[in-house]
Amino acid sequence: MASTVLQFHPSPASSTARIQPVVLFSICDSYVRRPDQSDRVIGTLLGSVSADGVIDIKNSYAVPHSESADQVALDIDYHHNMYTSHQKVNPKEVIVGWYSTGFGVSGGSALIHEFYSREATNAGQITAVHLTVDTSFTNGEASVKAFVSSNLSLADRPLAAQFYEIPLDMRMLEAEKIGFDILKMTKVDKLPTDLEGMEASMERVHSLIEDVYKYVDDVVEGRVAPDNNIGRFIAHTLASVPKMSPAAFDKVLNDKIQDNYALVYLASLTRTQLSIAEKLNTAAQIL
């Protein structure tokens, strides 16, 4: 009597993902610009996969779609045209998966993931990643998760796909961290200027210095047990600070501010000249 075999095909367990901040900003921007009838945004992730299984997500673009209670339809032609155009600019960035806004994996994800798995395979990648971004920033926190899928099949017939979360590394520079914190507020009157951004950075540095001062004071007074690793880190940080008198520091800071003002003035002057040139060109065409 022949037996039917239930097969489980796991994805590589060593897979991890790394995402660039520009991808998150692009996804949130696409969500803000979405059509009124759409509840979420779906798009393509571009990047590369290293030999050790790290999926590096470097870029993305939204793909128009329509969905109902029981189906999701992607504009595949638009996706292929966008990918072809992107390949002409940066051929090293290939399809590594897809993203959707919302909290976690939702209905219909298996079918979309199957499509992007084929696209990633055609691009030379072993696996595809599914990135979910909670654009509502529930409780002021951004839930960004990465998933890969495992296939469950009966004999040669696929039955279902199981998603499981993989580690996601998201590293930001200080300027990117400030922008991401503003993004989490969901509602702001205006974007901060360079000076306001510098002020926020200085306030954060001051807060960190206060924390270090409190820790050192607690260690000296015997309220906290000393940690050699923290001590070495503080010593290395202090040694990396250049020795500079207050007068010299004020001069360097003021010179930097003057340079920033000069750049702002030149940029404003350039915008004015371009606007005048555009109006003159329009008037010449009318005449």
UniProtKB/TrEMBL annotation:
It is found in: Cytoplasm. SMART domains: JAB_MPN. One of its GO terms (biological process) is formation of cytoplasmic translation initiation complex. One of its GO terms (cellular component) is eukaryotic translation initiation factor 3 complex, eIF3m. One of its GO terms (molecular function) is translation initiation factor binding. CDD domains: MPN_eIF3f. It comes from the Eukaryota. Its main location: cytoplasm. Keywords: Cytoplasm, Initiation factor, Protein biosynthesis. Residues 17-153 form the MPN domain. Pfam families: JAB, MitMem_reg. Coiled coil: none annotated. Component of the eukaryotic translation initiation factor 3 (eIF-3) complex, which is involved in protein synthesis of a specialized repertoire of mRNAs and, together with other initiation factors, stimulates binding of mRNA and methionyl-tRNAi to the 40S ribosome. The eIF-3 complex specifically targets and initiates translation of a subset of mRNAs involved in cell proliferation. Component of the eukaryotic translation initiation factor 3 (eIF-3) complex. Belongs to the eIF-3 subunit F family. This is Eukaryotic translation initiation factor 3 subunit F.
